Amino acid sequence: MSSLPAHNAFLRGVYIISVLIMFIFMMSLIRAYWPKDAGEASFESMEAFSVAPAKNSEVTAEVLPVVDRLDTEGVEVLHRSEKTLMGIPFVINLSGDVRAQIHQVWRAFYNADNVSLIQGIKNRRKVYVGFTEYDSGKNTVDLLIGYSVDHRIVQQVQGFSVVTIPGGKYLQRDSVLDEWQKPVSTEFPLAYQHDYEVYDLGQEFSIINQTAYVRIAQQ
């Protein structure tokens, strides 16, 4: 801004009046184009980014399992809710190459064309492997790889089966088969049926986490 004339009162007055007029003009422009609900919009935008409580009861059950009690060895006993699984059934021969058979199970599930036909999937980022029945005579186990689904709307899909994993008391482990082979707890006998593993998937079907739940036999 240029300095005020030092010796001309008339020019000084004209200069001050012009500055005031410019100021009034700028304020009128700002008032005309300023949104009237700017304050409300800001508040609403904050609400839009607030974290809503989870609506999926299963997610809550997975994150916060109920600890029933501890055994004498400090092993947690968890109460798990009933689940309905839909997926591809397999029979694993425990006397053969189990690792190779499990690899084939995952490959078959990954390449299945009609997975998209499954209705009522609760979370596509969680794959379940249910160990439904162990045959000690043949040393085989029936398993199913698929998703947890809403039993109220699930419909049959060719090549897929539906099994129900009952609610009850479970031990949380890293692997079902490892726990069967070398049980950690000696206080709770295992049921050797209706056990399951949960796999959290990342990008491109990569496994980022694995949790196993081994059912305790009713006493």
Mean pLDDT across the residues is 76
**Main beta sheet:** 9 strands, antiparallel
- Based on DSSP secondary structure assignment, what is the total number of beta strands? 9
Question: Any low-confidence stretches, pLDDT <50, length ≥5?
Answer: 1-5, 33-72
Q: How would you write the strand order of the largest sheet?
A: 1-2-7-9-8-4-5-3-6
- β-strand percent reads 25-35%
The separation of the N and C termini measures: 92 Å
Our count of helices gives 5
Which homologous superfamily in CATH is the superfamily of the largest domain? Answer: Regulatory factor, effector binding domain
What is the CATH T-level topology of the largest domain?
Answer: Multidrug-efflux Transporter 1 Regulator Bmrr, Chain A
CATH architecture annotation name of the largest domain: Alpha-Beta Barrel
**What radius of gyration results from the CA coordinates?**
33 Å
**Run of helices and strands:** HHHEEEHEEEEHEE
Structural class: alpha+beta
Summary, kept brief:
The chain contains five helices and nine strands.
Describe the structure.
The protein has five helices and nine strands. The protein is α+β, with helices and mostly antiparallel strands and 219 residues long. It folds into two domains: 9-48, no CATH class; 57-215, Regulatory factor, effector binding domain (Multidrug-efflux Transporter 1 Regulator Bmrr, Chain A), CATH 3.20.80.10. Strands 1-2-7-9-8-4-5-3-6 form a nine-stranded antiparallel beta sheet. It is elongated, with a radius of gyration of 33 Å.
